[in-house]
Structure formats: C-alpha cells, structure tokens
TrEMBL record:
This is PhoD-like phosphatase. Gene3D superfamilies: PhoD-like phosphatase. Residues 1-23 form the signal peptide. It comes from Arenibacter algicola. Residues 358-669 form the PhoD-like phosphatase metallophosphatase domain.
Amino acid sequence: MNRRKYIKTIALGTLLPSFSASAFPFGTISQDKLLEDIQFKSNWHNWPDMKWVGPEYWGNRLQDWRLKDGMAVCNISAGNRNLQLLTVQKTDSINPLEVSVDITLLNKSIANTHEGCLGMQLGCSGPFDDYRSAAVFGKGFDIGLNPNGKLQVSGQLFDTGLNKIPETFRLEVHLEPYNDKYRLKVVVLEPITNTLIHTQEDIYVDGKNLVGNFALLADIKTDKSHASQPLAGYSNWNISSDNLISNKDQLYGPICFAQYTLHDKKLKLTAQLAPIEEIEGNSVQLQFKEQGVWKTTTNTQLKHIGRAVNFVVENWNANSDIAYRILVEIPLKNEIHQYTYEGTIAQEPLNKESVSAAVFSCNFHYGFPDNDVHENVAKLNPDIILFLGDQFYEGTGGFGAERSGDPDDLCLDYLRKWMMFGWSYRELFRHKPCAIIPDDHDVYHGNVWGESGKKADTSEGHGMLAQDSGGYKMPAEWVNMVQFTQTSHLPDPFDPSPVKQNIGVYYTHWNYGGISFAILEDRKFKSAPKHVLPPEAQVRNGWIQNKDFDIKQYRDLDATLLGQRQHDFIDHWTQDWNNGAEIKVVLSQTNFATVATLPKTALNDDVVPSLPIPKKGEYVLGDVPTVDMDSNGWPANKRDKAVEAIRKCYAFHIAGDQHLGSFIQYGTDEHGDSGYAFAGPALNNIWPRRFWPEVNSDSHTYDDPAYVGNHVDGFGNKLSLHAVGNPFDTGIEPAIIHNRATGYGLVTFNKKDRTITTACWPRYADPRSGTIEQFPGWPITIKQEDNYGKKAVAWLPTIKVANINKPVISVFDNNNQLVYSIRMAANTFAPKVFDKEKYTIVIQDVENNRKKTLKNIRAKTVNNRILEINLD
C-alpha cells in the first residue's frame, strides 16, 4: 500500500461545544450550510475487531457494543441497548428520507420471549436539544421486529407472516412527505438475495416525532441464562436524504480528551482514548508545534486497561503558550486513519499578579452535556481547573454500575461514565492545567473509608454493610485503573509506595504559577467508624443509629483520618517554598468540618433528596447538626491534627464533596484560631444538603442570613461560618438542577497583595452580571495571614531583610518544632508567637539557596526591636 496515498487525517473536536453547531437545537438550524445531501454508509467492514464501534457512534452501554467480523455487535441480550449515530441528525424539515440496515440474529433463545424490538430508532432526543443528550438518554421512534416476528412501528404491531425473527434480514424504512407529515413504508428483506419478506405501507407519522438522532436498537430481554450471549450484529447501515445535518466535529474518540499539569519544569499529560487497544499497529503520539510544524516527542501504543496514555516531558519551558496535539494512527483494512486532538500547554503565570482557579465537584447527569458550565466559566477565564471528586456517580448515564463479571467489562462500565465527564467538561481544561482527584463515587462507593487500601467485605453484597467494613469494594486492579485515568497527570506522588492490595497513591505537591498546592487523599487511609466506635453506637453507613449515643464523648479515638504518611508529607510541604511558591493551598475531597444539618428525627441522610426546598429568604426550623462520619469532621482529634498541620504554612483549603457551597474558618482550641476553607457547590446535585442551625432567625433574610457566625458541628468541632449556599426555590427550570444550589467556585490568589478572594456562582448566573447573582455572602476576600487565626501571645523582633526579594521566614519553638513558615510579601515581617519563650528564626533566600539562622530569640508581649538581616 502507498502509505501517503491512503492516510486519512481527522481532527477531533476542533470547535468548542458551547458555541458550535455541535450543540444546536435539532429543530432550529439557522445555518443553511449545515443542511446537506447526506449519503451516510457505515464503514465497519473496513475496521478490525475491537471493543468499540468507532468515533461516529455512542454505544449504550459501552461494554455492550463491539466490532466483530465487520458488524457492530450488541454482545448482550438485554433491554434498551442502542447505538447512536453522532454525526448526522434530522431537523424538523419534511424531506424524503431512507434508512436501512442489515441485521444478523445471534441469540436464538429470544424466541422464548415476547417483548422487545430489534431494528432502529429515528428521532432520538434527550432532555436537552443536543446530540450528546440524545445519544445518552434519547428516546425515539422504534421500528423493527419483535421476538414473535411482528413488525413494530412505535407502539403499533403488524403481522408479517413470521413467527420469529429471521436469522438475517434487511430493514428498510422509506419516508415520503405527506402534507405536514410523513408517509412511512417499512420493507423487510432477505439481505443476500433481496427476497421480500414483508412490506408495510401507508403509516402516517408526525414529522416532529422524527427530529433528532439516528440509532440502532437492540431492545430484547431474555432469561438470565442467555442474557450474556450476543444478541445481534448490524452492518450496511445507510441513511439517505437531501436535508440532514452533518457535523464531523461531533466525532467522539478515539481521542476523547486530555488533561495535564506542569510542576518544577516537568509536564505530565494524560490522553484518554477509546478502546482501540486490540487494533494491531495502533500508534499514540504526543506532538508539539514548533515554528508552525508538528513534531513528535513520544510515540507509543495503547495498552492500559483504562484506555489512557500518560506522557511525561522533562525540562519544560513554560515561557509561552505551546500548542500540543495527540495523534492516534489506526490501520484499517483499506486505509490508515489518523485522528488528532489539539490543546494548549499554557504559559505558567509566574509573573501574573493574580492567579485564579475554578473549582468543581459532584457531577451527576441532570444537566448533561452541561453546555452552560463551560459557557459561563469561559467568561471568567481561570488559570487553573480543579475537579475535586465525584466526577460522576454510579447511576451516571443510566443503567447503574456494573460491579461483578468480566474484569474488562467493569473497566468499560467505568469508562463510559468517565467519557461522559470529558464530553461535558473537556473544553474547560483543553487549554488549562487541571488537577483531578477521585472521591467515593468515582470508585463506586456511597462512602469510602479506605483503611489503607484493604479489601472490603462484599460477602453480603456491595451495599452499606460492605462500606461499613472499610476498604474498597471493587477489585484493586480496577481501583488502580480509575486512579490512573484521573490522576496519572498529577505531579509524582510524594511517596509512591502502594498501600494494601498494591493500590497506588497520588497525594502530592503541585507548584504552579506561584501557588503551592498540597493534594491530599482524605479517604484512602481513613478508619471505618464501625471498627473504632463501641457496638452500642449502632453504626450504619457511617451514621450512629442509637439516639442516646453521644459521639462528642468519643473525641480522642484511636482512629485515622489522613494517616501518618500524609502528615509526613504535610510537614515537608509546609516548609517547601521552592519554585517561586508564594501562597499555600490544600486540595482535598472534603473539608475538615461537618457543615450540614438535618431534621431532629433523621438518623441518617437518606431523607436529603426528599426534603422540601424552601422559598428564597425562608429559614428552615427544627434542624440539628449532623454526625455524618463520611465528613472530615470525624474523627475529631485527627481533624484537629490536620487543621493544626496545614495552618503552619498559612494554607487555604479548597474542597468538594459536600454538595453545599460553604466558606468557613476552622477552630481547634478557640473559634477562628486556624485557617479558612472553601467547599465548592455541586455541579449536578443528587444530595442537596443544607445548613440551618438553631439560631435566632427572626431577622433572617436571604442577603443577611442569620446562620452567619460561630458554630459547633455534630462532632464538637469549632467552625465560624461566613457563607453557605443553601438550596432554595429559584423558579428556574430544570428545577432538579437550579433548586439544588448547584454551581462552581472561583478562587483568586493575588500574589502582590497576598489576598485570597472566593466567588461562588450558581449555575444559572451569568458571571458578567456582577457579583449580585452569587450565592449570599460571596465574594469573600481574606488575607494570606488570616489562615493562622490564633491570637498572638507575644511577638518576636521585626525582621528586616536586605537585598532579597520575598524571603521565606520559618519560626521554630524551643523544642525545634515548626510554629509556622511563610514567604514574606515584603522585606519586613513581625513574627507573632503563642508563648513568651525563646524561638529560632530561619530566614531563607530559597531561589539562591542561602539562609541565616537566629537562635534563642526571646518573645515579648510588646517588641519594638528590629533585626536587620543580610545574607550576603
């Protein structure tokens, strides 16, 4: 073969979904150039066998469709399986249309069932006018044969003279305009000889019922003993009309998306691919554009069970934006296909005065494909993207979660949900660095107490008993697969030693743009409550069922939260100010408090989805603080240890998980003696938590809420609440999105002024409208030094450093324990301390590896002394 002659290159997703034709409403196309004379023909006969059907298609479910012997095979006999065509849609125009497909029946046992349909769907549409919504959730106009051989056209059945589905048949659908409707003719043929089996004519259909996607349908259930058998194979799918929409930008795969981080001149990028690993000779390349020419730096093959490839580039020059491209080459039988996915490695904002990070978490499918999120966040133009857990839920995309069976099917089940995440949000991080950390639902848990990676007891199923047993319910290899797809692009782990079952870790330090992030795993090492609380607590799914049990009396439990390994990391990180770090930030799945209330009668949070949504400005009465041990308010003593550790570098805390946006200040010994934490709201909220503490609410208003102030959570932890985004009735549809306090956060770090400003936006809000549409209480600005709120007992001499730009000062007590460490914003700093003792002060010029140590410096209640330091 002449290689150059037979190479076909296809660029993937070159337009932004929010603004391109890839997100159009099916019936309201104004761009006539999109309406084309379409002669679509499937090309499966030229593709090799693989566990995917190609980039033009979306399979429901992913693991249920594959290419085999030139056919798209539905390899399960079950209900509601369909294969959606992504690149061609029908509008509401009434024009002639012909659709045909050859079908081979593979499971003969369906003769024992009576319901279902084998054929095609026209006019598939979903909750939103978008081809992706239709592809995942679409319902359509069914045409095909049922198990008894009858022709099914939507809800109508017609005799065909058959008593079962033939082993092979061709299904042809002919539609002709008839006034404002269609006259439909269905023909069933023997595909080899074109022998007529049945014709059904003069069926009249409203054209509106046919607007949307085209799909193949495999909707037949059998008994369990035959359900795992392949149901049918499809080939020669043809669609012909002179007035359809065609958009090749709607291909999805074989490159789905990519995410990257840059840390200490090391670029790490992970490309998420479709299941093409079975194709011999597949090639995956990372390329960068140099002087207008794409140059390959790495060439590899797809091998990982997560269908992801991780690339590492050392000595990265971050002085300018650099275009990157993932190129995948797939040898077909008749030609070679090259697919490309482009993005940008952004210039690191080292010299930028302010660096902003967009914060996301808790993403169900209610708003899929979530066009509004990218459209609004793009107006804010953040420098960094943060996804802090629950990138999806077990039920994302329908069908639930597959927890047992073929190991690779479990991976593909996960991959379908993960691909939906990328389909919604890849434009957020196509051109920006992005940190992603998995939470409990990412590993198919409602709650997870990892207990250092142990295997959970699933002998009685995968429900609450398994979760209460501690550890991971899913196989260790699968957990590692999840972590690889979501975190392999993060900087290298601080200590890569695996935990039990050889499950990997990813807690790490990410330094970018002068912001030093500690990325924690606050689930993996945590103790299961049932193992450390006495039996009389009656723990169920991390909740105490015994109303008379006072958890506050068990504050000093021998239980684990972060674990010693992560505390060792934090101790190191608090003093690491290399690579221009100016502000420290902790990222974790959830915050170190329990900012939630429930009705007094509730023993757990099962009632949360059914609780009434209050009107705007209404104060909900009768709630009490929750004792949810999935939160990091428990174990309380280890919560205090974590809070005290991160305040030693004046770290700000950003988290997700709680489904409730909040801004609090931690307290250990006293309210307000520690740092601040922002928990972002949920993107799509299945668990609309709330915070309505018992306070005097007589003067409560939406804009001046009564709950602001000092509180003690259900475990006895002190917190000072400054803002919370409670659910309320917005009157905006869909209510299941907008009445559940959904949205995202934006945290802006001003390195010059050393301030941190947090914004909290509802999904419905337009950021260009000003701050008035933010959740009540936001935006909030604090100073970096506010993150160690403990009041000074005494002061050390003012330190004045000459000839050094922004030195680092570290203060140690008389036991050589770190009190705190911070990069000075100017050349003077007045160190506060908490005892009238002697201290050691270390001044560092980190960039030039110089330091000076001052020992036995006495603290005084009033200290007017100035120490001038010169490191030359």
